[in-house]
Structure formats: C-alpha cells, structure tokens
Amino acid sequence: MAYAELVLVPTPGMGHLVSMVEMAKLLVDRDPRLSITVLIMKLPIDSEVDSYTSSLATSMDATRIRFVHLPRVNSDPEISSGTFLAHFMESNKPHVKQAVADLAESAGSIRRLVGFVIDMFCTTMIELADEFGVPSYVFFTSSAAFLGLMLHLQSLQDEQHMDITKFKDSDTELDFPSFTNPLPAKVLPSVVLIKEAVQSFLEHAKRIRAVKGIIINTFDELEPHAVGSLASLGAPTVYPVGPILNLKGETKTKADGGGRGDDIMEWLNEQPPSSVVFLCFGSGGSFGEDQVKEIAYALERSGHRFLWSLRRPPPKGKFDLPRDYTDPAEVLPEGFLERTAGVGKVIGWAPQNAVLAHPAVGGFVSHCGWNSTLESIWFGVAVATWPLYAEQQFNAFELVAELGLAVEIKMDYRRDFRMESDFIVTADEIEGGIKKLMEDASSERWKKVKDVSEKSRKALMEGGSSHLALGHLVEDILNNTP
Ligand SMILES: O=c1ccn([C@@H]2O[C@H](COP(=O)(O)OP(=O)(O)O[C@H]3O[C@H](CO)[C@@H](O)[C@H](O)[C@H]3O)[C@@H](O)[C@H]2O)c(=O)[nH]1
C-alpha cells in the first residue's frame, strides 16, 4: 500500500508552526494511510523553531511525519516591515518546489502526493500545488471570525473599491457578517491599516477562496455564528477541527533555560484553589520598564496572588523575540519581589498549559493570541484581555463582546511591528481588570467559560463536531487522485 502523502507548508513562527504540527499528528493518528512531510523555512532571526523541531524528531515516527529544513534565503526587506513576509515566501518558493520534487522522486511507489496543506500566510505556495497537479488546503491558525474578517475586507476592497486603510484611527463601527455585534474599526489588525501591507495581506484572502478546503483551529460550538457565515462570504468547504492544542508542552525552548518549570508547579501546589492570576503574553509579548512597573503596582494593590511571566524586550529598533531576564529585579519597583514573596512569583517563559491546568489558577491576563485563547477555554480559565499586536485586538473583542467569555483590561491598544509603544496602560486600569476577573466567580461569564470548556472537550471526542470534521477532511484527502 502506498501512503497518501501531504506536504505541509507552515509559517515558521512558533504561534503558527506548533498548531500545524499538532494537526499533522491528528491526521496521521486518524488514518494509517496518511503520511506527512513538513517543510520548514528558515527565518532570519533565531525563532526557536530549530530547537522545537529537533525536540520533536526524537518523539515521532519518521515514516509518518518528517521535517525537511529548507536552506536560508536572502530576503530584502526588514523583518519588521509590512512586506517582509511576502518577500520571504517568494524567495522560499524555489526551495519548496525543489523539496517537493525531491520528495516525489524519492518516494517511488511508497508515497503518492495527494495535496498541500498551506498556512494562512503562505498562500503564494498554492501555485506550486497546482504545478504538481494536487489540491491545496489552507490551515488557518486563528479564529473562524478572523477568516470571515479577511474575506469580508477583501470583498470590500475589491468589489466595493473601498480603501480599508481609511479606518485607521476611526471611531466607526462596521457591519460584519461573522459577528452578531457591530465591529469597532479600532480592533482591526494594524496590517490592514498600513498602505504598504494591506494589499499583500488581502491577497491571502483572495487566494484562500480558491483552495479545496480550509482547516480551522476552532470548533463549531465556540463560534457557531462565525463558522456559519463563512459560506456566504465565499469560503470553500471549511473543516473546524479544533481546538488543536499542544498539551504535551513540546515547545520547550532555549529561552526557558531548558527547565520543566518544576519550581513553578511546586509554588502553585501551595496556593489555594482559584486564587492565582496568571499573566502571560505569548511568544512575542514584552514591555518596557515603565509598563512593567505599572503592572507591578497593579498586582501589589489588587491583593491577589499572581504568577507573572515577565520577559525582556529585544533591544530597541531590533526585531527579535523577547528573552528571559537573568534578574527581573532590574526592571521591577524597588523591594517588589521581597514585598510580594509570599503571594506572587515572577518567572520567564511559562509552561503555560501546565499552569492553566493547575487548580490554583483562577484567571488569566492574556494577549489573546489564538492558541492562548483556545488553551484558556480548554482549561476553563476566564481571561482578562490585554492584546498587543497582530489580530489580538480582534480576538479580544470577540472574547469580550461577541462570546461573553472575558473581561477587558484593554481592547484597542496597539503596538507596531517592533512591539514599541509610548502608550502606557495604567496601574488603575490593570488593577480594575484583575479585580473584575478574580472576584466574579459566580457570574454568568464564569459559567459560560466552564460550559464552553466542556464543549471543547466534547468536540474532539468520537462523534463530536471536530472529530466528525476531521473524518470528512481525511476522506476528502484520500479521494484526491494525482
Ligand atoms: O511563556 C510562554 C508563552 C507562550 N507559551 C505558549 O506559546 C503559544 C503562544 O501562542 P499564541 O497564544 O497564539 O500567541 P503568539 O505566539 O503571539 O501567536 C501568533 O500566532 C497566533 C496564531 O495565529 C496569533 O493568534 C497571534 O496573534 C500571533 O502573535 C501558546 O501555545 C502558549 O501556551 C508558553 O507555553 N509559555
């Protein structure tokens, strides 16, 4: 029997790559006839992708999932510019093509190429799938609502000739088919408000319309309205197969010092149930010293126990990922660590899933990256929103206003691509949000969080909505004849 081979093309950032690899595992676990090659493009910064993929290589069956690392390319624009990704993909295209040709040649009668699965930001690779005569599927690492937003904005631009960038700094609200509430322009992602970036961003939406199917990391019961609206927005068949989570925590990176976070777990074990607020801002989130101090004052004044993942921003003007502090005291208010020693803990990179799973954790101050959002839902932990960049403002709005699952610290607060901002969220605002989050365990919102958490687990069980959607996807893939 020849394996039906899929080529996966992820965007090589951890927020995208990890869920795509987990999706690959789901696929091969679901059907023994599938095998997968994941092509890893090399970013010009140390994105921790290499250490992640090598940690995986030891735990995976290489006959079913393989990683091919592509050569580093020269990509002209600055990584922080709005056009970097488009150039990066273009420069990588010949390498992707070569890798697939090599694969086809070496596979012989063992593997039969049946399709490409392409990350939502790698859509220029669709034409390579066309060249190889196989269909493309898109893997969408964010919400169904965000997919709806991309499709809607693209049709506003291309069919109604609207200049989307006019919404920059606008107080207007948009009628948005994927939400039951009007959408404030202030939560639009910055990429659609920047003239040099919007075009290539909306080109993704155009190309996405033409693929055979879109695999979305969401589940029907979380976003029923948004999922239901996609067909009318011109989406092809969608497969909501989520939540796809990395529950085994294989993202352990260099930045976490290689530790498993045993001291963090021991500390949590000593805290009362639901008493700790956890603060964590994803793989790219960090703050300058003034903002760090405001957070510290807020935590101290709130009187709540806390676990705070505090990370050092990259040097000014340099695009890189945050790293752990050797000594966080250098940016904290004087005496903060001593005064809060009994009730709080400041850490670097967090074992986030293990933390969210811990009964001592009662609330999560989050940047609302989609993976963190799904993880908070899975573990039934309510969120206070503090979005920073990308589509996080939009996710925060969905969580607070559309789904009623979160409280707001900030919603329309933006940073640029370099994460730099002079805007400060005050200690009062942060304290208010934390108190609201931690002191309403009997509220309607809290019940909703628990309810949707249960639904997320049911969705993945046999007969659940995501389990069924994955079955339909596998069936469709296996029917592809080259
Ligand atoms: O200290 C940390 C910080 C993060 N994580 C994990 O890292 C992942 C972070 O993913 P996510 O919450 O999605 O945030 P980003 O890394 O910021 O993800 C990028 O990709 C997402 C998916 O497309 C988008 O929703 C975000 O806006 C974009 O910034 C999650 O699994 C976290 O559990 C940790 O384990 N420990």
UniProtKB/TrEMBL annotation:
Q: Which domain of life is it from?
A: Eukaryota
Claim: Mitochondrion is one of the keywords in the record? no
Pfam entry (one): UDPGT
Recorded hits in InterPro entries, A to Z, give: UDP-glycosyltransf_plant, UDP_glucos_trans
Q: Which SUPFAM superfamilies match?
A: UDP-Glycosyltransferase/glycogen phosphorylase
| Gene Ontology molecular functions | UDP-glycosyltransferase activity
List, alphabetically, the Gene3D superfamilies matched. Answer: Glycogen Phosphorylase B (3.40.50.2000)
Transmembrane segments annotated in the record for this chain: none
User: Which ranges of the sequence are coiled-coil?
Assistant: none
* Annotated keywords: Glycosyltransferase, Transferase
Similarity remark:
Belongs to the UDP-glycosyltransferase family.
Name of protein: Glycosyltransferase
